[in-house]
Design a protein that fits this description.
The chain contains 18 helices and five strands. The protein has 429 residues and is of the alpha/beta class.
Length: 429
DNA sequence: TGAAATGTTGGGGCG
DNA sequence: ACGCCCCAACATTTC
């Protein structure tokens, strides 16, 4: 018997590691673990935990149709795997790679433990088309600039094609067992919430319009697939194929995702500090009252406030607006990008450490291939360009253009000058 | 996927 | 007709 451990790959079809387990010739015991160490850090109301719980339920049902059962645990992965090995004859553990620093360390420990026990540990690439050092410069160093990275990425995709791992006919290879229960959200300290999660369906006609419409938050023609990519409820290979067919611009966004994943993989220090070291000495103002206004969407800048309120209410924010609010926090308010990063990490349904970190550092100017610090968004200009009719702003800030809407918390041109002064003084060698 | 400041050009009003 | 000025429109430079 083997174990397939689901983590951020919550689907049965086109799941690389699961496929390899199912065709291995051994029966497969599928397992999911609510990692207590991660969950303990989250507030009792967390939409993403609800999402995972729902998806686990669906997978469990689907596996039960084939006579198997998904075993769902709550606790420490290492301890749970240890006790599974005690109670079952296990020959191998199958997983898909996870590139985040915490997960890498966790998986390393589990690998060491399995090695001691002489149990095979099979790990697979699944959440990206190209991982780790598959796309590197000719001298072997990682790319830190997006454009040449994407060129090589596209060439490699052309050469190698996009693999597919159809589990369909192998699903009878799950170990046949009696159904077990799933730990409830309440048992794990979470509230159940009624959330409208985006659909995991790719819409080709939407993708065809993506290039023309993606920058207009009022139209909201972005795919909202982020949460599904995050938890693997859609296959990234399926997305890439669709991008190739229907929208090169959207495909480019998927390449950015892989770019930032390999950056985090090669430079795990970016999780805590600036990619460009000189930005670590930036003299942030870090005013907690300013931060509070930004968080609540009470800055007096309608596009910023609309974005923050959309985020707080729905767990989503249109990407154009993410750039504007991130620029506003770091440049106008001079607040450390990590503060904003943490707020997004808590609120975004589609939160992905590598993308969130990479894009925040991009906005702050501290990242690899970031915009130079003197590129400062003007929230009013952005509003004119991308929400001229005020469609988006009125949706999220209904009191806009009434007396109860606050004055701008800071004068744009004053804040711009202050930003240029502080950045250039701080970055001076 | 920046915006402001500064420079250049050319049409038109006017004496 | 001519020179001068204004200024919008566009281009380039700067932060």
């Amino acid at each position: 018997m083997t174990i397939f451990w689901f983590r951020r790959d919550l689907r049965l079809n086109d799941n690389h590691g699961l496929y390899k387990a199912l065709i291995s010739g051994n029966k497969v015991l599928p397992v999911f673990i609510f990692d207590q160490e991660i969950l303990d850090l989250l507030p009792a109301q967390d939409k993403r935990v609800v999402f995972i719980h729902q998806q686990i339920f669906l997978i469990k049902q689907a596996i039960q149709k084939h006579g198997g059962d998904l075993q769902v645990f709550y606790g420490s992965p290492l301890q749970i795997i240890r006790s599974l090995l005690d109670s079952h004859e296990i020959r191998a553990l199958y997983i898909n790679h996870d590139y985040e620093p915490y997960a890498r360390e966790r998986d390393r420990q589990i690998g060491d433990f399995l090695n001691e026990k002489s149990i095979a540990f099979h790990t697979f690439k699944d959440q990206v088309l190209f991982e780790k050092s598959e796309i590197v410069k000719n001298d072997g160093n990682p790319y830190v600039v997006f454009t040449p990275y994407s060129r090589k990425w596209l060439n490699k995709m052309q050469e190698e094609g996009i693999p597919n791992f159809p589990s369909g006919v192998h699903l009878h290879n799950f170990l046949q067992v009696e159904p077990t229960a799933i730990p409830s959200l309440t048992q794990m300290g979470f509230e159940n919430m009624d959330v409208d999660f985006p659909s995991p369906h790719i819409n080709p006609s939407q993708l065809k319009q993506y290039k023309e419409t993606r920058n207009f938050p009022g139209l909201d023609n972005t795919t909202h697939l982020g949460i599904h990519l995050r938890f693997g409820t859609i296959s990234v290979r399926e997305c890439i194929s669709a991008g190739q067919k229907h929208s090169g611009v959207w495909l480019n966004e998927l390449i950015w995702r892989e770019f930032f994943m390999q950056i985090l993989c090669h430079f795990p220090r970016v999780e805590k500090s600036a990619f460009r070291a000189e930005y670590n000495r930036l003299n942030w103002r870090n005013d907690p009252n300013d931060f509070d206004k930004w968080c609540k969407g009470e800055t007096g800048f309608p596009l910023v406030d609309a974005g923050m309120r959309e985020l707080n209410e729905t767990g989503f924010m249109h990407n154009r607006v993410r750039m504007v609010v991130a620029g506003f926090l770091t440049k106008h308010l001079l607040i450390d990008w990590r503060w904003g990063e943490a707020w997004f990490a808590e609120k975004l349904l589609d939160f992905e450490l590598s993308s969130n970190n990479g894009n925040w550092q991009w906005a702050a100017g501290s990242g690899c291939d970031a915009a130079p610090y003197f590129r400062i968004f003007n929230p009013s200009e952005q509003l004119k360009k991308f929400d001229k009719a005020g469609e988006y702003v009125k949706r999220w800030v209904p009191e806009y253009e009434t007396l109860s809407y606050p004055e701008p918390m800071v004068d744009h041109s004053y804040a711009r000058q202050r930003c240029l002064k502080v950045y250039s003084a701080s970055l001076k060698p």
